[in-house]
Amino acid sequence: MIVHPSPLAGTALRQRMIEDMTVRGFTAKTQHDYVRYVKTFTAFLGRSPDQATAEDLRRFQVHQTQAGLQPPGINSAVAALRFFFTVTLDRPDLARRLTLVRQPRTLPLV
Fold it and tell me: Does the pLDDT of residue 49 top 70, yes or no?
């Protein structure tokens, strides 16, 4: 398992998340992506993500939408944060606040 270093490297919370993902058999790429999404959320938050509130998660999703992030990117961040809050922090109450964004389907031209 190779996870690229980040400013969160070495923190107990980051290490615990990586261990949780390893136990569940996540690939190295998925682990890297999940750590990156939590790191992005932490940078947005400006404090440790274990201190996040439901309002912080709502503001983060609004921020992602306003920044022009497409639904697949937003949904990937939702998956990473749901894992982080549900498994690593054991706070499923916050994970329920995260909503997936529907991507409109277009019919193929015939």
Answer: yes
